[in-house]
Structures are given as structure tokens and as C-alpha cells.
Amino acid sequence: MKSIIYCADNSVKWIRDNFSCCSPYLLEIGNKPFLEYIIDFCVLAKIKKIRIVQDEHDERVQEQLGNGERWNIELSYATALTDSPIDSIIRYNRGFVGDDQVMIFKGMFWLKYDKRSVVPVANCFSGNIMRTTSAGDGWYLAAALAEGTKDHMFVEDNVSDSTLPGVAALDSIMSFFQRNMTLLNGDSIRYNLPGYGADKKNLIGQNVVIPRSAKIVKPVIIGDCVQLGQHTKIGPGVIIGSNSLIDNNTDISNSVVINNSYIGCNLELKDKIAAQNIVINPHNGTRLDITDEFLLTPVDKRRKILCTPEQRLAALFLVIIWVLPWLLMRPWSRLRTREISFNSGLHRLTIKRHLPPGKNFIGRWFFKFSLDRFHLLGKVITGKLRLVGNIILDDSSLAKAGLDHSAVEYKPGLFSYSDALGHGQDLAQCRIDEFYYLYHAGFRFNVWILYKTLTRNFFKET
């Protein structure tokens, strides 16, 4: 018994329209990617060989799922022509299927099963049967073709007490929202969901920061590496995706927060879906850009000063401290450089960034002392660059990080909140960090960032 998961692109247009930030078939429902629900069922049904077929190739699928080792199965990948019928999918993958029976999962739909009662599919086989939604998405069980026949004739399986899984439509933002709420309100016990909790009504991931002033009202599902701000209220009926930050005094109920999202201060979300900087009302499909409404509005856009006198004085102080070690170490440091161009808020700048050295001992200590930034202190003193500000990114990286919406307030600095936390290479996390910085930037916070970055650079391995 084998399985083919056919990721038909025509089934996920609604996902592309609403969640452009994620791979459609990796959209998380209850903090678990859609494809992993299908794979979990196959594992429970004793199907050990699975092939994922895409008619719109997305390398993120293979990067996420790998070769199936973590499920102890064989997972392979293939492509197909757009809108291929089921029999064409079987024929194109004849080398994989061979003479075995095969179960095909087509398109985006919800697979209804209970992990406690799944039986091997081979034991339930009774010819070519299917269960599908009105759009034709669902599962198909295909027997080996008899000699002289070219196509399978599938019959709808309408047996109410069948041990085979049911299907439900997952074809709109509303059905996505309802499915998440159903998982929260009891269905989570039927599936293997990530997280830990004394009961299935509270599932909390790893590395979650919950301050004492925050309030959690079950049922909730919170992913990994989530940070809740002071005096936040989460629940009832909330799913928060991994790598998200909920800022101070925010109240969220009956809502879904997609992973890698930042929710600002003093907000109330009820019956909504938040996907990075977009809030969607699932009942009528209306969308609101919270970057514009909640992040930039409170910022005083009349300020034209890029670098304050305090930051210039601090830069001058660093020049005095660093000049001697820089003169001693720079000639012996084997450094590579890269030019980067960006908009500093008031100027268009092109600077040289030093890249970390290889095995050069002096070069490693050059970076430990943060001397790779010394040559840019002059731009801080002359007011062309901030000492502490947003992370420095070129235009393309800025757009990939989703920070182009806040370009009017983008004021890059030699030190940033993302640097202080060590997130410089993770653009999705940088986006959250920089939105947080937009809200909380101030003298004390900038001093903390400077101190944290300097100490982190000194003690980290290079």
C-alpha cells in the first residue's frame, strides 16, 4: 500500500490571496502544517511510502518535510501538469506505484480521522472508492488496474460507519477559521498536535515567554518561541503561531495569529485572523493593514532628525575607546567586505560591511570587540546614520522581511534590537524585532541594545 499526496494549485487560490507569506500546503491549522495531518494519517494507517506531487513547484515543501525520516517513512517528490486528473497522476508515477494499491489525497480539504481508531487502509480496501468535497478535493483509493483497462472508475464511499476517514471542505478563509476553532473546542484530541499541557485545552510550545501579569484563558494553543507582553490577555479560543510576539496590554480572543506575526500594544482582536501585518475578518473577508493603522500612526512623523545628539556623543566616546585597538588589530585581520546600499531615512547610503573571518585569530577578536563597526562611527557623528536603530538591510532584504511598509520610519543603526537578540540572519524574526523596536524605541531601550549587543558579540563563538 502506497500513497500519493497531490498538491493541486487550483485548490489553494484563497490561501495565496490571504496568506502570501506562507507555502499554501504548509499553511498551519492548529499550529500544524496541513500536509503533516495527511502524513500522520498515512503513518497511522501503516502506509510507509508516500510521494508528494506538485503542479506548482514549491521548494519550501521539501525543505519542511525532508525525506520522511522523522516519521520513519519514505517520502519522495515529483511534479505534474496543472489540473492533472487522478488517473494521469497514477500513470505519471507508475514507477512509484508499481502494482500496489494506492491512496491519493488531492487538493486542499480537511481529513477527518481519530488517531485512536485509525486502522490499516489495506484492511478496508473494497475496490476503487473515493470521498470528496463538492470541488473534487478529497481522497481516492485505487486498486491495481485489471488487464485491458486504462482508467479507474471511482465510486463515492457513502458508508456512514466506514473506518475510512471523512472529508470536509477547506476552501475559504471562513472554513479555515472554523476548522481552527473546532480544534480548539474539542477536536484537538483526535490529532497529534504540537505543544504541551495538562489537558488538550491548553497546548503550549517550547521557549514561550509568559509574564506573571499576562492572563491565559483556555482553550488556547500557543506555538514555539512566542513572547507575550505585560498585561496581555490571551483567550478564550486563541491560536498563536510560532515565532510571534504579542505586545503589552493587548487582548486577543476567538482569533488565530499566524506564525511570525507581531501584534502591537493596546490592541483588541476578537473573531479575527492576524497574518503578519494583515488582520482579516473571516466572516466577511475584509482586510486591514495593521502596520499602517497601529504601528506608524503613533509615531511622530514630523521629526526629521535622524541621529540625536546623545547618539552622536556616544559614537564619539566609542571612537576614543576603540581607536587604539582598531589601529593595532586592523592590519592583521584578514577581513572580507561587502557593499550594501540602503535608504537611511534622510539619505541614500552605500557602506562597506565587514564579513566574519575564517580561522584568523586576530580577525575573530576584531569581531568580538565589535571593531567591525568602527569605520562607520564617522557617519553616526555626522548624522547620516544612527548608532542604535533599525537593522541595516539592503532594499531586497528589507522587502523580504516585510519592512517596506514602515519605510517612512526606517532609521538604520550600527546596533539594532535584532542584533542584540542574535536574529540578524532570520528575516522573518527581524521583522518582528523591528516592529517591536518601532513601538519601544527610547533612550533606556537604546542603551540596553548597545550593552546587550557588545556583550553578546564578545562572548559568542566566532
Summarize the structure.
With 462 residues, the protein is an alpha/beta fold. The protein is 28% helix and 23% strand.
Please give a structural write-up:
The chain has 462 residues and is α/β, with parallel strands linked by helices. It folds into 3 domains: 2-170, Spore Coat Polysaccharide Biosynthesis Protein SpsA, Chain A; 187-296, UDP N-Acetylglucosamine Acyltransferase, domain 1 (3 Solenoid), CATH 2.160.10.10; 309-459, no CATH class. The chain is built from 14 helices and 29 strands. Strand 8 and strand 9 (138-142) form a beta hairpin. The protein starts with a strand and ends with a helix. Mean pLDDT is 85; it is low at 292-305.
Brief descriptors of the model:
single chain, 462 residues, Spore Coat Polysaccharide Biosynthesis Protein SpsA, Chain A, 3 domains, seven-stranded mixed sheet, 28% helix
**Average pLDDT figure:** 85
Helix vs. strand class: alpha/beta
Name the CATH superfamily assignment of the largest domain.
Answer: Spore Coat Polysaccharide Biosynthesis Protein SpsA, Chain A
Helical percentage: 25-40%
Count of structural domains: 3
User: For the record, what CATH class of the largest domain applies?
Assistant: Alpha Beta
Question: What is this structure's SSE topology?
Answer:
Elements: E1 2-7, H1 13-18, E2 28-29, E3 32-33, H2 34-44, E4 49-54, H3 59-65, E5 74-79, H4 86-92, H5 94-97, E6 102-106, E7 109-112, E8 129-132, E9 138-142, E10 155-156, E11 166-169, H6 173-184, E12 202-204, E13 215-216, E14 220-222, E15 227-228, E16 233-234, E17 238-240, E18 245-246, E19 251-253, E20 255-257, E21 262-263, E22 268-270, E23 273-275, E24 278-280, E25 287-289, H7 290-296, H8 309-329, E26 336-343, E27 348-355, H9 361-368, H10 377-381, E28 386-389, H11 395-400, E29 413-416, H12 417-421, H13 427-440, H14 443-459
Parallel strand pairs: 1-4, 1-6, 4-5, 8-10, 12-14, 13-16, 14-17, 15-18, 16-19, 17-20, 18-21, 19-22, 20-23, 28-29
Antiparallel strand pairs: 2-3, 6-9, 7-11, 8-9, 23-24, 24-25, 26-27
